[in-house]
Amino acid sequence: QVQLVESGGGLVQPGGSLRLSCAASGSILSVNAMGWYRQAPGKERELVAVIFGGGSTDAADSAKGRFTVAIDNAKNTVYLQMNSLKPEDTAVYYCNAHLRIMEVTPKWVEVWGQGTLVTVSS
Description:
The protein is mainly β and 122 residues long. The chain has strands at residues 3-7, 10-12, 18-25, 28-39, 46-52, 57-59, 67-72, 77-82, 91-102, 106-112, 116-120. It is built from no helices and 11 strands. Strands 2, 4, 5, 6, 9, 10 and 11 form a 7-stranded mixed β-sheet that branches. Strand 4 (28-39) and strand 5 form a beta hairpin.
């Protein structure tokens, strides 16, 4: 079974930093994209940052200059380095991946992690 496991969330003061990790496991043949979304209370889930198989990245305007997404292809793990955190960054952060997997037959799937809570507060 293919799954994503996030880690690194927690409580941090404004201006602080956190590094989130998302490890994909299972019979993964290739990665099309891996990235991060977040959902704050009462708000719609939104894209934070994503990295594609070719190495290009995209990020929300609110994250640019503060957040950096990177991937370790050997480990199928994506990271989100978050600096200069603001209270507005408080949300559950979800890892998302578009993967080609091998179960009984190869296929493309979209997989979501369970989420890790980031709370930015003094």
